[in-house]
Amino acid sequence: MDKIKFSILLEYLIKNSSYTIKRLAEETNIDRTVLQKYISGTRFPNSYTNIEKIADKLTLPKEQRDSLYNSYKIEKVGYHKYERLQLIKEIIENINYPKEISDYDFNILYTFNQINNFAFNNTDLIALIRFMLYQAKKSKSHKLKAYLPNKNEIYDIICNNLKSTTPLFMEMLIHISTAKSEQLNNIKQFKNLLPIIFLENTQIKYYYDNQAFTQNNTFSYPYLICCDQYSLLINSNLTSGILLENEINDYLSHQFDKIYSQAELFCKNISSPSDIINYYLEDSFIFQDSENNYSFSYEPCIVPALDQELIKKIYPGDSKNKEYVENFLNSDHKHILNHIKKGKNFFFYFTKSGLQSFYDTGKVSEIPNQFLNPFSKTDVIRILNRTINIANSYPTFRFYLIKEEKFNLPNKFSLTFNDIKNINITLGGKNEDSSVNLIILEPTLRNEFYSLIDLITLEECCYDFEYSYEYLKKFIKKHKWISPMLFIMLFITSTNKYHTTP
Fold first, then answer.
1. Does the fold of domain 270-485 match that of domain 106-265?
2. According to the 3-state scheme, what is the secondary structure of 159-202?
3. pLDDT tens across 313-334, in order?
């Protein structure tokens, strides 16, 4: 990523154009003194507005224009923070539920009638990894325990097996650094965990200090994989391994269990209706002591605009859970409104495409698919009108349309967070009728996701409230739907008005 200073790059681009500073100032309507201060580095633009004027007038090609924008953004927030913001953005734009792999089983290609206890190269090590997977799958517990880096061939092989239909459960231990210089690596680790983080057969725990196994050097074996009968020690550069069993296996497995029991849960993955309800009701995810609450979703946030009648229509399931779902949504709805009435902020961001999708399908990402009986088009317009009314009544309730060309939120995606750093990601599940909730529990990672607000501001990823408000009003007007029965009634009323009986 280019680290060149904004002022130096701007000066270079102007000098290599046909423009003088005086002429450029005149044609962009930027004060000449201000422009000179940009070039000298004594003043920094507050927004993209003047930068865009300069880039347009200089007719910069895309590469140079992007370089100018990037240098501005990097200098505004700092190089390392900009790197982290870009990676968070990349993660969100590409996040999806892992696809299942049918019968991903290496037994088809490998037989293990005889296995060496030592791996002296990568090929031998991979064979031992496959042997461990084979043993775990046929064991009583079907369990694999792993402490290893999660961006390598070994990790990929294990991930594919976890996504397969064959029985396998993994307990994974990861290291999180609290050092400021290592925050980017923590985010990278989260990104690398995404292929398995949503899976029900995976549990990930983290630790902060270096208590795990051994020091990370070329001659040590810091990484470990265990199953019921065997343990595999792996060296730091993943080129050799030692397969152990009997008492030594028992010892290493016990050591792993000891560390794992003391480690903290990295995230909470919930998908069943009862688990989701219990989480929201018991853990009180949002609104506790928080001054600012945010929602980023493909579709608009609708919970604040619900009412008793609409809530009763939502749940399509059995009567046993219906009451719990209604109580959960009523509670969430009341919490938001009380929060707003107290003068605390509730801001939500959504896309134009998601708005149209909500109208077409009657579904939103923020309410898990397991709970949602699609709204009619009449109900959709009703909800959108109530959203407008709440915004008119409370200045602390605001919504913003995301510029999709700058920030491409995935379909069926919702991210909810607040200033006490609670982070909840909702995503479409393994099929059309399911959703999965991911609650990020590790504090440093939660803090990085909260910085999404900084990214929105930095890259001007959304329209202002006034534009978003007018767009929603026009959308309602354009899509306002009258039921056939209501249309007939209105027609009869109108006809009777002008054709009275003599």
1. yes
2. HHHHCECCCCEEEEEEECCCCHHHHHHHHHHHHHHHHHHCCCCE
3. 887 766 667 777 777 788 788 8
